[in-house]
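DM between two lab members

TW: hey, do you still have the Transport permease protein entry open?
JB: yeah, one sec
JB: this one, 263 aa:
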Amino acid sequence: MSAAKLGLGQGGLEVKQFLRSREQVMFTLAFPAILLLVFGSIFKGDIGQGVKFTQYFVTGMIATGLMTAGFQALAIQIPMERDRGVLKRLLGTPMPKWVYFAGKVLMVAFIAVLETAILLAVATLLFGLDLPDTGAKWLTFLWVSALGITACTLCGVAFSSLARTGRSAPAVVTPVALILQFTSGVFFVFTDLPAWMQNLASLFPLKWMCQGLRSVFLPESFGAREPGGSYDLPMVALVLGVWCLVALVLCLTTFRWTTKRDG
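TW: and the structure you got?
JB:
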């Protein structure tokens, strides 16, 4: 089989396995939409300059959805597969190692596109979300999302080596994801957070993903309320790009195919 067919075949298998897991589908796809419904129904006012809270909140939820699909899902799923011996068995087959990762990447891309579409549909139909009105904004939306999901996917693969067992993976990964959400301007206006919290969040991709998406869905004048006085898209691209490189190096140097008890 050609490399493309191998990758696509593994991707299709990963997507089927994802869709067959009701719990995973509910948590990954439905939970962000439920949060949007809850927060959008409770907080109906604006946060200044005519910007509705929902308009602000949806940017954070899209970024969170990308992080959930890439980082959180893989950092939990891979240790479980390692613990069950799935990765060890794959090593004994003729399948090239890269095919396994290609399947995960295609699964993450499928989930990310579907989840983003669901969030945009809910926010537009129920809360009057103003979609980007220029091609430049849609282009920014695409490259911020692409860089963000790439960084989150690579971080998820790298972080998967920290969990000692598959059972402990959710306990290791979920608190990290929650802390990043609360400190990165997802649930609250970022500049309303304490300075130390803003500085901490600035070290990680989620904050920059949220900032880049705010430039797409919020007025240009609202950029003055960002910590640097603008949306600073070049810095968004730089930080996300650096995280992609750092996480790739960590993946190549720390990824484990077997558990410690397997040797």
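TW: got it. Residues 53-83 form the longest helix (31 residues). The chain has one domain: 3-262.
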